[in-house]
Amino acid sequence: MAPTLLSIPVELRELIYAELFSTYTVRHGFGSTSSNRASILQTCRQIHHEAWRHLPLNLSLQFQGTETMLSTLLSVDQAVVTRIRHIRVTAFPFPLYKDNRPDYYTTYYFSSALSLLPGLHLARLEVEDCFHGFGLGDGWRDVVTYLDFETLLRCDAWRELVYVTPCTDFLASGYDHRRKRSAQPQGWDALLKERDGLKSGAEVQMFITPERSSSSSVSDADASASASASSKPQPQPWSAKPGNEVIENWRIAGPEQDLKGAVTIVARRGKQATFVQTGFTEGKSWAELKDQEGGFSREGFTPYHNDMADAVGWVYGGWGRRMQLAIRALGHGF
Q: In which residue ranges is the amino acid composition biased (Low complexity) (predicted)?
């Protein structure tokens, strides 16, 4: 008789459950469904009892935005939240109101959303930059992306943080009248080593996937089109100075300063670092928190970089910028 799943040792079954669920990505807020690899939980009581605890530990959760993440994770038991290990999300500031909110309201960095999920203990957090790549044209977004990553670097919810932005503007642009930026990744690397220890293994690295030269000839383009996939630009280490400082003194620019392309920032905590998000359980859904009288607000949360500028110029552009983000962040099922 051919062996069945229940006829093999439980230790092997648990390896199978972990491997199965590690290939499973659950997407929220994209208007599509995922294949149901969790259907194994419905086969019988014994398999459900053995396998269910491996699901949150091994699957990947992908959220369309911050609000989708909060809506989903604040609706489940905290015991489930503490077992989640892999999240990918586009990091919009929050809260955002698309309708019936013409008055100014405070918004906070994505990192503050993690403090609403105490016990979050991620092996890997992948974050996509929400401020570039969809038509915003003014320079305020560059510094906001820079500080968005820096605030994440200070939180405790992750062991490995991967931040992806489609361009180098967050650091290489000339806009930074408040002079908030410094040379990277060495500044962030020093910040993380200060937290975890110089010899802890903590590190921050930046990689760029260079764009193909716009000066390539047509024949070059034809040749590249016929080349194999291995000839595509590959990520390479990247470092740069703030663009506003380079404008003031071009001599400080390194050879990589003018490279253009998508940037991936990778941060890893030290070997002995504690990576568990602290905070207090709200005991309410995100809809309840967001729709309370006066809207959602928290003392101690840091408003995102341009929040006060939006408030001062609410009728002259602040409201419009906020609506651009809200429409993009809440455009899927909200």
A: 213-231
Q: What's the rounded Cα separation, in Å, for the pair 161 and 124?
A: 6
How many domains is the chain built from?
Answer: 1
CA distance 260 to 212: 9
Per-residue pLDDT reduced to its tens digit, 283-308: 899 999 998 888 898 888 989 888 88
pLDDT tier at 219, thresholds 50, 70, 90: very low
d(CA 68, CA 28): 7
Residues 6+ apart with CB under 8 A from 44: none
Reduced to 3 states (helix: H, G, I; strand: E, B; else coil), residue 160 is strand
Residue 295 lies in a domain: yes
Give the integer Cα–Cα distance in Å for 334 and 324. Answer: 15
Q: Tell me if 11 is assigned to some domain.
A: no
Of 86-95, 216-225, 278-287, least confident by mean pLDDT is 216-225
Angle between helices 140-153 and 186-196 (to 10 degrees): 20
